[in-house]
Amino acid sequence: MEKIKILIIDDSALIRKMLTEIFNSSGELEVVGTAADPYVARTKIKQLNPDVLTLDVEMPRMDGLTFLRNLMRLRPMPVVMISTLTEKGAEVTLNALQLGAVDFVSKPKIDVANSLQDYAEEIIAKVKAAAKAHVRTLTPAPKRQVSAALHSGRHSVDAVLRPSAGKKHFATTDKLIVFGSSTGGTEALKNVVANLPADTPPIVVTQHLPAAFSASFAKHVDEASAMNACLAVDGQQILPGNIYIAPGDRHLLVTRDGARYICRLNDGLPVNRHKPSVDVLFRSAAQNVGSNAIGVMLTGMGTDGAVAMKEMSDAGSINIVQDEASSVVWGMPGEAYRLGAAHHVLALDKIAEQLLTLL
């Protein structure tokens, strides 16, 4: 089997050297070249025809975003951003995902030489997924005229929330929508909520992101939607017209206080190597919302959320998964489909319409 060819674009010679060692050690990846800036990279892309680029955000002569914008216009290809875990780095990285980057890896701010090796497994996995990704420049769908992280550890959802004994009977008929997503999900979620009215029933979201990115992501979603988006707060009441997003270092659960839905944050173990985990959110919806829930699984690498989405289906919820053709990576939605958890398999631009129909 041919190895995946990688071109590393980074102005730091140390980062280029370390990434080369990490990729070449995997057995499935091969660094065919490196570039200190986008001008050199442009020539090497033509010469070497790589399968995946890794791209730094801040570089001399041309910044990563400008290069990415030109690349996606002239020669779309899989790109994994290398960004710093800072507020500025988060904002730039989310903009890069909007321009068409497949995913990102957070670069440590200090002690890079020793810390970057700790990210090796994550970096390799993300580059391998990027090589298979459906690359496109995602542009937000026009708004309809309507009324109104990766962590170590391989624990299952049982480590945070135990399975329930059986079905519950619910006093309220209020609807609630839960979303799960990962790779490609930041743009996919914005695409869906941009087409929902301000009075839509509440939406609760788990998107795999580092904590430093959470506030910027919530702001991007808020700007894209007629609904109000925010980071979830422990004990916060869940109300219509609002989108509640899991912080990047806590699991988000939906619980009940009588007929009211409540956000609960949990600092437990990572589940499926993620914190927050989609499985945790979806199991809480199965246990506390049941047939009043609608589950939506968007693009994402891995399998997180699939098992609990089946539990939601068994509890009476209706579930939607994004189809393979419109997903950047059909990992999480594909696994939910294979487990029989999906009632609707839809292209991204059809999901909002189906949600409104179900509501």
Summarize the structure in words:
This protein is of the alpha/beta class and about 350 residues long. It folds into 2 domains: about 5-130, Rossmann fold (3-Layer(aba) Sandwich); about 155-359, Rossmann fold. The protein has 12 helices and 14 strands. It has helices spanning about 15-25, 40-50, 65-75, 85-100, 110-115, 120-130, 185-195, 210-225, 280-290, 305-315, 330-340, 350-359; strands spanning about 5-10, 30-35, 50-55, 80-85, 105, 175-180, 205, 230, 240-245, 250-255, 260-265, 295, 320, 345. The strands form 3 sheets. It has a 7-stranded parallel beta sheet, with helices on both faces. Helix 11 (about 330-340) links the parallel strand 13 (about 320) and strand 14 (about 345). Helix 4 (about 85-100) packs across helix 8, helix 7 packs across helix 12 (about 350-359) and helix 10 crosses helix 11 (about 330-340). Mean pLDDT is about 90; it is low at about 145-150. Belongs to the CheB family. Keywords: Chemotaxis, Cytoplasm, Hydrolase, Phosphoprotein.
